[in-house]
Amino acid sequence: NKDTITNFFREEIMQESVIYQDILQKGLAKGLEQGLNQGKKQEAIAMIMRPITRRFGSLEPEIRDRIDALTTAQLEDLSEALFDFTEVTDLVTWLQSR
């Protein structure tokens, strides 16, 4: 258990171990990847919302929530589909099909 390991090894020794460093590096890499993906998605949402808001005005919260729930790939698809939308119901229909 954690207490046994902590009592057996001092923190400084653990931090210097190759296994500890490997685990730490993997965790940092995973966190960095997740952060980059999150940032990419937020930027895609912002890029989608600008033309949507300009064309249709303010959206109902339910529609905004549906857009927020899309994957990055779906947001990219939506950015292309926007060219075919003439009214907000086109957007709603597109979201319902996803």
Structure description:
With 98 residues, this protein is mainly alpha-helical. It has one domain (2-96). It has helices at residues 2-8, 11-16, 18-56, 61-68, 72-81, 88-96. The longest helix is centred in the middle third of the chain and has 39 residues, at 18-56. The termini are far apart. The model has no long low-confidence stretch (mean pLDDT 88).
Write the topology of this structure.
Layout: H1 2-8, H2 11-16, H3 18-56, H4 61-68, H5 72-81, H6 88-96
Helix pairs in contact: 3-5
What labels would you give this structure?
81% helix; 98 residues; 0% strand; 6 helices; mainly alpha; single chain
Count of domains: 1
| Major sheet size, sense and barrel closure | none
What's the shape?
rod-shaped
Helical residue percent?
Answer: over 70%
Summing up helix and strand content along with how strands pair, one would put the structural category as mainly alpha
Beta-strand content estimate: under 5%
Quickly count the helices. 6
Order of helices and strands: HHHHHH
- Radius of gyration over alpha carbons? 22 Å
End-to-end distance: 46 Å
Give start-end ranges of low-pLDDT stretches. Answer: none
Mean pLDDT: 88
| Number of extended strands | 0
